Each structure stands twice: as structure tokens, then as C-alpha cells.
Amino acid sequence: MKTLPAIADTLRARLQQQGLTQAGLRDAAGIAQRTLTNVLSGEQDFKVSTLLALADRLGLEMVLVPKGAAAAIDAGATVKPKVPTRIAVARRQAGGVSE
């Protein structure tokens, strides 16, 4: 992430994934509603300590990596392998649910 809007998008998405409300996040992070609104808007700069508090409450980790390594992080979530594991094959053969 290289921009404030990108950080805000990530925080908003995680907030939704976690099923939290803005009020709950605000209280847990110990910040004012106006501060949270500004951070989530992606339009205003904010303190690193605010970002750390929000990330922590959302189960996120803030990491600084060399630029060359950033591409691996930006690659996104992993996908399930297309080749089934031996366990998945055995479950399928036994009539169980595959992974």
C-alpha cells in the first residue's frame, strides 16, 4: 500500500470482515470518532500510533519491508491448490467431504 486511500480501503474492508462497528473499533482503539472518520476517509493524514492501534484492534500487523519484497505481499491471498492432497483423495473415496 502506497497511499492513504489504499490504507483506508484495507481498514474498511477488515472492519466489515470482522463484523465490527465503527463505534466498537473507535472504543477499542481509544480514538475519537472524528479521528476514525478521517482515517477511514483516506483523505487526511494521521499519526502512526493511530494506525498501529487500529491495525491491532482489527487483527492486522503493520510491517515495513524492502521495496523488492513488497510485490510478494501485494500478490494477495493464496489460492487452494488444484491438485488434491492424499487426504482429500482418501476422503472422497471414502464418501467424505473433500477439502
Could you estimate the helical fraction of the residues in percent?
55-70%
**SS-based structural class?**
mainly alpha
Largest sheet: none
Stretches with pLDDT under 50, minimum 5 residues? none
Task: Tell me the fraction of residues in β-strands, as a range.
Answer: under 5%
Mean pLDDT across residues? 85
Count of helices?
6
Query: What characteristic shape results from the CA principal axes?
Result: elongated
Count of individual beta strands:
0
CA(first)-CA(last) distance: 32 Å
CA-based gyration radius: 19 Å
> SSE order, as H and E?
HHHHHH
Q: What key phrases describe this protein's structure?
A:
99 residues, mainly alpha, 6 helices, 59% helix, elongated
Your description of this structure?
The chain has 6 helices and no strands. Helix 2 packs across helix 4. With 99 residues, it is mostly helical.
Record the SSE blueprint.
Elements: H1 4-18, H2 22-29, H3 33-41, H4 48-57, H5 67-74, H6 86-93
Question: In summary, what is this structure?
Answer:
The chain is mainly alpha-helical and 99 residues long.
